Structures are given as C-alpha cells and as structure tokens.
Amino acid sequence: MLMDTHAHINFDSFDADREDMLARAKAAGVERIICIGMQPQGGREALALARRYPGQVYASVGCHPYDAALLDDACLAEFEALLREPQCVLMGEMGIDTVKAGVPLEVQERAFERQLELAVALNKPVCIHSREAFTHVERVITRVCPRGYRGFAHCFSDGAAEARRWRELGFLVSFAGQVTFKNAQSLRDAARTLTPDDVVLETDCPFLAPMPHRGKRNEPAYTRLTAQCLADLWGLSLEEVARRTTANAARMLGLECRT
Ligand SMILES: [Zn+2]
After folding, report:
1. What are the structural domain ranges in the chain?
2. Which residue, 31, 73, 130, 136, is most buried by CB atoms nearer than 10 A?
3. Res. 258: pLDDT tops 90
4. Contacts with 47 (C-beta within 8 Å, 6 or more apart), sequence order
5. How far is the CA of 36 from the centre of ligand 1 (A)?
C-alpha cells in the first residue's frame, strides 16, 4: 500500500473527475491520501472530503508561507477547531519560502512559529514547507518543538546535507515527482543518502507531475511513479519501498495501516 501524504485534491482542477481520480489512486495501490487544506476554507474542504471518503482521504489544515500575512488569532482559532476533528490528522503546510512567497521573512517566521506552537499544544504532526530556507526553518523547529517531534519535510528539494539534518531532527523527508525529473540529479543524490525508513511519498498534486506526465495535471495515482524511481535508486522492490514508507507515514500520523 502506498500513501500520498500531500495532495491538494480539494482544488477545482479535480472537480470534473474527483471520483475517477480516487478510483485510479486505489487501483494504483495508493490507498491513503492526505488532503492539504490551505487557510480555514481549504481545511473545511479537506475535512468534507475526508468525511465523504472515510479511510481513503484524511485532512490537514494550515497557513502556507505565501499566505503568512493572513495568519491572525481568528485564523488560528479556526485551525484549532478543525484540528480537533478526528479526520484532521496533520497540521500544515506551514513553513518558510525564500524563493517565491513575496512575504517578509520575519512575517513568515512568526506565522510558522505560531502554527508550530498550536500543533505542539494539540499534539498534531506537522507538514513543513521549506524552500531554500532550511536554516530558518530549522531554527524555528528547534525553538518550538520538543526533541523528536513528528513531522515531515514536504516536497524536499535541498541536498544531501539538509536531508541528513532533517533525519537528525527526527523528521521524515518527503519526495514528490521532481525526483523523477531528468535534471534532478542532486535530489536523487540526496535520496541515495537516505533509506526508505527516513522517507514518505507525496504528489503535491495538481502540481509537479512525475515523469512521464511532467507538465500535466498530477494526481495521487502517480505516487507509484515516484516510489518506483526511489526503488530503482535504492535497488529495492516497489513493494518494499511502499511498505516501509507507508509504515513511516502511518506511524507519524497515528493511522492504522496494514502495509
Ligand atoms: Zn502543497
């Protein structure tokens, strides 16, 4: 069984074929999908999907670094209410993006810190967005989180040194479709320094479709292509990679999963 730990299946790009998309995921062995809801509205959409597809879809909610300036007390209170629902198993995505956010770094850091504090208070695992921001992200995590706190580095895009630091922090490293891209040699080198026990899988759909679908809409079924790429890198079977990465995700999220 595979798990897509980061999917935006509430987006309207799936409105026309959401049922079929979920059936294709199941057929590809992707039996668990975490729907990442951004802002309270996205979180409500994710929760509605989790209730509609129990056991296949679970919800997450958080404030993306692009939206960091919008995070206020009312927003955090809505996050908290959503996170108290049992189908909402994760908080995020949250973090820091120095490439594209267009929000001052200190505003992003503060929004990240406040969300992490809420996650720790509620004992929810966290999904971290870190784009060319590892040292900033690491500083906030070590300040707020108890040692060994549960979470993962979503859509990992740094190098081998950062991958090892995530592991030392006790976080899992999540690979999306970019690891299959032709020009992603340094990302594959980073993956080679890890083992399946350090890793979870995601699509970040509808973005970042793996080869051979690059440039088209991504969907949870394609988690399998990323798993196959990593299996080839590690010299392991797809089944082995599926079993171990799903076990990591299930443990982090507190989900029952026969893998
Ligand atoms: Zn995302």
Report:
1. 2-253
2. 130
3. no
4. 37, 59, 61, 82, 85, 87, 88
5. 7
CA 8–ligand 1 middle distance (angstroms)? 6
Architecture of domain 2-253: Alpha-Beta Barrel (3.20)
Report d(CA 103, CA 118) in Å as an integer: 21
Spacing, Cα 38 to ligand 1 middle (Å): 9
How does pLDDT run across 234-244, given as a tens digit for each residue?
A: 999 999 999 99
What is the distance in A from the centroid of ligand 1 to the CA of 73?
Answer: 23
Rg (CA), the chain: 17
Round to whole Å and give the CA distance between 213 and 24: 15
CA distance 33 to 25: 9
Expressed in angstroms and rounded, the spacing between residue 206 Cα and the centre of ligand 1 is 9
What is the distance in A from the centroid of ligand 1 to the CA of 12?
14
CA of 195 to the centre of ligand 1 (A): 23
Helices 185-192 and 160-169, packing angle to 10 deg: 40
For residue 174, the cross-strand partners are 200
pLDDT digits (tens, 9 = 90+) for 124-176: 999 999 999 999 999 999 999 999 999 999 999 999 999 999 999 999 999 99
Strands (E), the chain: 2-7, 30-38, 57-62, 88-97, 126-131, 151-154, 172-175, 199-201
Question: pLDDT band for position 257 (50/70/90)?
Answer: confident
Please give the distance, rounded to the nearest whole angstrom, from the Cα atom of residue 238 to the centre of ligand 1: 24
